[in-house]
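Journal club side-thread
Mid-discussion, someone asked how the predicted structure for our own chain would compare to the paper's figures. Pasting it here so we can look after the session.
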Amino acid sequence: MSTKSSGRIKGVPLSILDLAPLTEGGSASETFRNSVDLAQHAQNWGYGRYWLAEHHNMPGIASSATSIVIGHIAGATESIRVGAGGIMLPNHAALTIAEQFGTLNAMYPGRIDLGLGRAPGTDSPTSHALRRTLNSGPEDFPLQVEELEDYFAGTSRVQAIPGKGEDIPIWFLGSSGFSAKLAAGKGAPFAFASHFSPRYTIPALNVYRDNFKPSERLDKPHALVCLNVIAADTDEEAQFISTSLKLQFWGLRRGTPFALKPPITQEELEALWSPYERQVVEAAIDSFSTIIGSPDTVKHGIERFIEETKADELMLNSVIYDHKARLRSYEIVHELMD
């Protein structure tokens, strides 16, 4: 298999979703050093955004204190936009998020994005531990968003300082149609998590575009779509390193998440999971929103994805155990794009 691509993708802006992977045998300190290194490379390669996601009680993800990690990355870079993809708003007081992101934007003006999600990003016991009570939840998300917007606008009786008057783009994140419709009604940009919800990608994007109402911020829909990409110099190498991603999904579907494991052979993987578990994992990371392979394979996969989704931006999630291989994956995609 050739390691050279036969052409370049005439594409859309590229961004990165960093789940700050905690690797088996590694540490959180190592994870954050790797995130800084990746963000600095991404900036040099021309990636537009670098987002981190809020998860809790997840042995393989170190970005639970999302706002702190965003500040760490923004402080180590100069121009790339850094943000949350996303903050799970029901886990927090809206005032707290307004103050945190107001502070971040004051420190790094014009570089901070705030993506909002309505899921807890964790299990039920952890949700309870985060909120202390269950008086609020995902169903209250639209009201929490309005409260947050009031803090940024300075129209609330309580003032968010910093926060009031800060121009921070709010994105709505989703893996179904609910946030798509909310984003459309507010004339806001929408980010869809196709990397773990491939079957709802096109329906959700249709809901967003069909219901979009122009706003002061946007006069037409703007959809960012996240997909898994694992690129290597050969198809065989990419398939091998992708087993870490498959193991991660396997653990999640079994309800036993673990630190990101090193890759294993396909034979070893087959010995671990049942035929049903394999089917479940492959449905979650199908070939539409998970592209694995050499430059040519990745090129054709991304071109098909852009054609089918009509995405305005692509955000890449590359779950790879070895940091150098992870850097190489993002470098390959950068080399493919115009």
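Post-session note: The chain is about 45% helix and 15% strand.
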